[in-house]
Amino acid sequence: QVQLVESGGGLVQSGGSLRLSCTASGSGFSAYRMGWYRQTPGKQREMVAVITSGGNTNYADSVKGRFTISRDNAKNTVYLQMDRLKPEDTAVYYCNGYYSSASYGGDYWGQGTQVTVSS
Prior knowledge:
4-stranded antiparallel β-sheet, mainly beta, elongated
């Protein structure tokens, strides 16, 4: 069982920066694909950025060039550096950990952290 705890959300002005952190408890973090997703009221949760166990990354078009996902396996932590924030980035951001193999699978979510960007 893996538990994910996010931190780092808050209120920031348009053009500002925030860094989100997600720390995992339990074992096997380095094998997980980790990701950040976000959701606003009335909309589906959407992928923001993911990073594989090998360090490959993928970003939503809306955040490319502004957000950077990274991971520190020694600290069981994944980060989302968000720069040049826009009001449309306002959402609850969720951390996700995903693993699948022939013998085991896991799909875990954090509780979410609010990010609000004022114009």
